[in-house]
Amino acid sequence: METSNVTEAEELEERLEKEALETKNDLSSFAVHEISNSLRQLLADVFGLYVKTKNFHWHMSGPHFRDYHLLLDEQAEQIFAMTDVIAERARKIGGTTIRSVGEISRLQSLKDNDEEVVAPRDMLVELYGDNQKLTRNLRSAHELCDYHGDVATASLIEVWIDETERRQWFLAETIREP
Length: 178
Fold this sequence. Notes:
The protein has helices spanning 2-19, 29-58, 65-92, 101-107, 120-148, 151-175. The protein is mostly helical. The chain is elongated.
């Protein structure tokens, strides 16, 4: 029985090594596999959050239109700026990244909002919740990077956590009841 487990573990390690790109670093093939999968999940969530933020930006209305419209445009730009860095980090360590919109849809944990009409405050509340969830996902990815000793990816994630917490703060202050 143990022989088959060892064989399965060896087969998994061999498969992961074959899947890893020829990028040379000191991370194990298993670490590359786990971290790049985590980055793919984050990238899917970041793309989903970007599209939702732009959706709400485009469909904003009401007496605070200008302020909310500009806030969401600024946040969308910041979110989009994360995408290339996330994808390239996965490639730098020898992993792969997202290849299609379909893959984003399968991987993202944040829910889309396809409603025809969403009240401005509801938009902001929903984005606040999505940024909270993204922060939790970023912290989990950071823990994984710490476990595998991937200081560079952990460092990038720390910046993204700070940016995401700032977006949460702005949204929280904007939706605060008087």
